[in-house]
Design goal:
Helices cover about 20% and strands about 20% of the residues. By secondary structure, it is α/β, with parallel strands linked by helices. Strands 1, 2, 5, 6, 7, 8, 17 and 18 form an 8-stranded mixed β-sheet that branches. Strands 4, 9, 10, 11, 12, 13 and 16 form a 7-stranded antiparallel β-sheet that branches. Helix 1 runs parallel beside helix 7 and helix 5 crosses helix 11. The longest helix has 21 residues.
Length: about 575
């Protein structure tokens, strides 16, 4: 039984800490909530557990290897000390300061889970992959049609205008390809395919008529847009871009919110829990632990948006207990924490391309090619697995002209390392992971972190559907590469890749039609605590096989404007 005085917090304290809205998290979706509320004139507090980073404060943005005593090579001891984040492709010396080290913020892995985090203002929007394909009704109707998972309470038509709203502000480069699986949006000019990629597209679309190869739609902008950019094609995005060549909260939404004069940004603020008033039957504020002083502070508002990132958002809800919600805020049916999903990136395929030796390309294009889902779509019916996968693919020239059998020492070896290598092709499938009730997060009842917050426990794994789908994806990749004429085609699966390493964690506080099987309604409100909204990855009801960040932003813009309308009506 929860007692009214069971916490160390005084819910009547510090009335001066009142705001119209509180946004927890300052990254991909939190920046959008902050922008929408402040631009409508609402006094908004933005809480971020990490340090502040102002746009432009990117210390490695222009560093070159020859300016570093170790040539920008990562200290092997740092990798050894960080076995989880050390597996991330972007955890390198030039990006290291944007990533959470394993021991700084521990969690408990019941099954192996690779939790990759960025605790700073802007969050992971500073170091994301920037791929922004829209979802479609193929995704929003999937649960209802095949019966795995509950029905989404929204459809593409509900989100389409908000996709456009977001795209027009952040800037998206892409081509209008006319494909139903990835509807067209508001695009700036696309990046170009190189000469080999144009031939790959022609060959694959000719040999496999149901499959399409398009240039990846990217949040890198190809022309100046909203006083940012353009992208310089340096492919140094995860360092932070001083030109604003790609969307980050730091370069886009947070400056827009700051410009209004209605945003209060408070870094170093670890949100402990949501304060729920049982008598008023609504949330009234949040409890915060100052990350540096450990001081407990309470802030109050009419509406609260949780955008702390999938796992942290749900951990806050699980830790928000009251007489009404004794198992966590919104957890009326033991759904909160369940149905954790990621994308399956475990597989890879590569091959060597002969010819084209007289051709090269300019710059470091920050996006690749994309092949949208074709399995279990239209006339393709698979009996061995549900849903489908997309591919990220591309062709480039390899570094060095050294071949097996060539000298491995001496001037000839050195010369060959400076020559252009062969062309190569790579394909990486991105598979949809189904929502499983047993893939979940919980809070440990005995261990807490340095701020007194219970440690998160994660129990998740890929299952048979993902394993069978991955085998199909690799077989198809090899077939398509051989059809193009690739030599030495090989495929493989990374045995050390666990759920989480895709950095697309989703679910655990899903949207639905009823509190009997979901946490949130169609406007991202907690069913029976309607002034609390969740619009980051935690709200997702399925995972599709497109990168999800654009959808988080569109959902947040939609939910924010709904909340603003409800506030104006006096309904919250």
């Amino acid at each position: 039984m929860i007692q009214k005085d069971s916490t160390a917090f005084n819910i009547n304290s510090n009335k001066a800490n009142h705001f119209d809205a509180i946004v927890v998290g300052s990254g991909m979706s939190g920046g959008w909530a902050a922008k929408e509320f402040t631009e409508k004139g609402f006094n908004t507090l933005v809480l971020e557990r990490g340090r502040n980073i102002e746009h432009g404060d990117y210390p490695t943005a222009t560093m070159e290897p020859w300016t570093d005593p170790h040539g920008m090579a990562m200290d092997p001891q740092v990798i050894a000390d960080n076995p989880v984040v050390g597996k991330c492709y972007a955890f390198t010396k030039e990006h290291e300061h944007h990533f959470v080290k394993d021991k700084e913020h521990p969690y408990i892995q019941i099954k192996p889970f690779d939790w990759i985090r960025g605790y700073q203002v802007g969050g992971k929007s500073l170091m994301w992959a920037r791929q922004v394909q829209r979802w479609s009704d193929l995704d929003f109707e999937a649960n209802a049609k095949d019966g795995h998972g509950i029905d989404w309470p929204i459809r593409y038509a509900d989100l389409a205008p908000w996709y456009s709203y977001v795209e027009k502000f952040i800037g998206i480069s892409g081509n209008r390809d006319g494909l139903d699986q990835i509807p067209d949006g508001e695009f700036l000019p696309p990046f170009d395919m190189n000469c080999v990629e144009k031939d790959i597209k022609k060959t694959i679309e000719g040999a496999f008529p149901s499959r399409n190869v398009v240039i990846g739609r990217s949040a890198n902008i190809t022309q100046r847009h909203n006083e940012r950019g353009p992208c310089m094609a340096r492919n140094r995005c995860a360092r932070g871009c001083p030109f604003g060549g790609y969307y980050s909260a730091n370069s886009s939404t947070l400056p827009a919110a700051k410009k209004t004069g209605f945003m209060t940004l408070r870094p170093h603020s670890v949100v402990h829990s949501i304060i729920y008033d049982d008598a008023k039957r609504k949330a009234i504020g949040v409890r915060v632990i100052d990350a540096n002083t450990k001081e407990t502070i309470e802030y109050f508002s009419k509406v609260i948006f949780l955008n702390a990132g999938t796992v942290n958002t749900t951990a806050i809800l699980l830790n928000s207990k009251s007489n009404t919600f004794q198992e966590g805020l919104g957890n009326e049916s033991d759904v909160l924490g369940r149905y954790l999903m990621d994308h399956d990136f475990r597989g890879h395929a590569r091959g060597r391309i002969e010819g084209y030796e007289d051709s090269y390309y300019k710059g470091h294009r920050p996006t690749g090619l994309y092949m949208p889902r074709f399995r279990n779509y239209k006339n393709d019916k698979q009996q061995s697995f549900l849903r489908g996968y997309a591919y990220q693919l591309g062709a480039s020239r390899w570094t060095g002209n050294w071949k097996p059998g060539d000298p491995t020492i001496g001037s000839d070896f050195k010369d060959k390392l400076t020559e252009f290598g062969s062309w190569g092709m790579g394909m990486g499938p991105m598979g949809e992971q189904l929502p499983y009730a047993e893939n979940r997060i919980t809070l440990n009842k005995e261990q807490t972190d340095d701020w007194g917050v219970p440690l998160v426990e994660v129990d998740a794994e890929f299952k048979d559907n993902e394993n069978v789908m991955l085998e199909d994806a690799l077989n198809n990749a090899a077939e398509m590469m051989e059809a193009f004429g690739c030599k030495d085609v090989s495929t493989g699966i990374d045995p050390k890749w666990n759920v989480g390493l895709g950095i697309h964690e989703m679910g655990t506080a899903r949207m639905g039609h009823s509190p009997k099987d979901s946490v949130l309604n169609k406007f991202n409100q907690i069913h029976n605590a309607k002034n609390v909204f969740v619009s980051d990855g935690a709200c997702m009801t399925s995972s599709a096989c497109q990168n999800p960040s654009l959808t988080y932003m569109a959902i947040t813009a939609r939910a924010s404007n709904y909340a603003i309308d409800e506030l104006k009506k006096g309904n919250l």
